[in-house]
């Protein structure tokens, strides 16, 4: 018997799973007795990017199946695993169609069971099948071939999150998954170029980042006029600019904490404390973003935002090893980037450089006006209008895109 959505919601509302196995995590001290987030990728070295997915785990760090009864020790630390209906409701995407357009996802390394796991996710929530056979899903390497790179557990988790996030925000979108040979900017950039050549690609999501870099070095990869290129701003709060979100050509996507509420919208958003923000003096700001607005003489992150807090993250079916997978809850700005890429695909309005569109239509966004990601002014603290952690705000349908 298929497990029900109700059982998923109940148990995810109590705690989300840390899955046992070979998931690669960044070293960090876990809060004693508290549910907490763990990074799934190691910190990037110069010339490389790190994926930005984070898993929400139980206080003990023990594996928790979100469909099983929750241990008493975990139950008081409730969290909410977002479903496709939640994401579509929060961002007013219900009933919209992509009209055959494609969201491309660029990540590093291979993910052996991507199609299988995506199928399990979509079936659980009653979404239409998205397979290679029906033309909805295509998986290629950075050269466009079908020989997959070697498996990497952390980056496979990232790919699962990206695939499920696109499916949640835009069930009608086709998906192109490009698996680069490594996490170097050269290989990831080659993957972006391959993605841009894909049939019907309207948006390319990049849920990774490294130190700030100049477009004169890597910008040729992300300079894709006519295609919305989204990039995660990072998960370390106000820590300076991160590339490719700091690129003049990308839509830099920050993060919020998204919770259900009794408001007219039905949802409330505040700045997620991990949402990356910062000022790059290496790259020019996109049209519409001014120094008077941001306090940055160059390019400020973010432009827009979406849910990214692992504690309010997405229920995802993700690998625990090369062969096995399980349900867990994920966040990080790795979640917000594919959500926004999906909104661009739903709008179909990506002529020129898509990162200028929100600045021309700021009233079409939900303004985030509370919360912070550090101790500073514009770059750290939410306010009416533009702020560093969330940019101009979060999607209100496709109005601003």
Helix count, per DSSP? 9
CATH topology: Rossmann fold
Please trace the helix and strand order, writing H or E for each element.
HEEEHEHEHEHEEHEEEEEHEEEEHHEE
Shape: globular
User: What percent strand?
Assistant: 15-25%
Q: What kind of oligomer do you see? A: single chain
Q: What is the mean pLDDT? A: 89
The CATH superfamily label reads: Peptidase S8/S53 domain
> How many discrete structural domains?
1
Number of strands: 19
CATH architecture: 3-Layer(aba) Sandwich
The CATH class turns out to be Alpha Beta
SS class: alpha/beta
Report on the architecture of this protein.
Strands 4, 5, 6, 7, 9, 11, 12 and 15 form an eight-stranded mixed sheet that branches. A four-stranded antiparallel sheet has the order 1-3-17-16. It has helices at residues 5-14, 84-90, 114-124, 153-169, 185-196, 215-222, 291-294, 333-347, 357-360; strands at residues 36-39, 50-51, 54-57, 102-108, 137-141, 174-180, 201-206, 208-211, 228-232, 242-243, 251-260, 267-271, 278-280, 299-301, 304-307, 314-319, 325-331, 365-366, 394-395. The chain has a single domain (82-395), classed as Rossmann fold (3-Layer(aba) Sandwich). It contains nine helices and 19 strands. It has 401 residues and is an alpha/beta fold. Helix content is 22%, strand content 22%. Helix 2 (84-90) crosses helix 4, helix 3 (114-124) packs parallel to helix 4 (153-169) and helix 5 packs parallel to helix 6 (215-222).
